[in-house]
Amino acid sequence: MTQVETATVIQNNEQFVNASYNGMTILVRQSDGYINVSQFCYQYSKQFRSLIKQDRWKDHIKAEIDERQPERNLLGLLMYSIDKGYANDFKGYYVHPILINYIAIWISPKYAVTVRKIMDSINENSQQTHTNFEANTSRLNEQLQRENTDYSNTIQQMVPRLVPQDKQFDYIYSVELINEDIDGSGINQSHHQGYVKSKRLYDPTGNNFITSIEPLQGADQSYSINIRVAIYSMKFSAI
């Protein structure tokens, strides 16, 4: 709450300023900025001495002291009195500027209403800001969830396309050993070798399943008979 200077008065080589505090006239001691609350209360037919006797005033002073510097007793710095050496208009209690709002509410119901309106407006704006923030946060979360779902669906739709249709084949080189006992004198081994083509089903999880194996045209037909043996020995890499 600002103060608007209106006039400067010299008293005992010291400057005092008649100023306006939110439409209320106050006398400010220029050297320290303290305000003559005795004169301030007198304008509204109030006695400042009556206020300082109240427990609520004492509680307010204590709260201000605790807020500023809890380790020091600032009561002497928050308020003092001038009772001699000056004209009557300059005598009385002087208080720190942080106390003037509390005193103004006490002496002027109109001022109290003004302060209430200001605080209500601040509170309303704060609540509206909080409400808007929560609404925007909720909206953004929902939007992100939708986008994540869309991306997941798009990826799932794209996965099968990574293996073109009718291209899911592996070519496997297989060697079949055939043991033959010739005239009872020993075991001779012969083998057949060639390529077979296996067809597999692509699974998006990364697993590959063989659905059928068939010999290539021109390959040794013995593979069709021993196909089960070939399945156990084959190896293939994912496309």
Automatic annotation (TrEMBL):
Q: Which organism is this protein's natural source?
A: Streblomastix strix
GO MF term (any one): DNA binding
Please identify the protein, giving its name as recorded: KilA-N domain-containing protein
Domain KilA-N: start-end pairs: 15-122
What InterPro entries does the database record attribute to this sequence?
HTH_APSES_sf, KilA/APSES_HTH, KilA_N
Coiled-coil blocks: none
**A Pfam family name for this chain?**
KilA-N
| SUPFAM superfamilies for this protein | DNA-binding domain of Mlu1-box binding protein MBP1
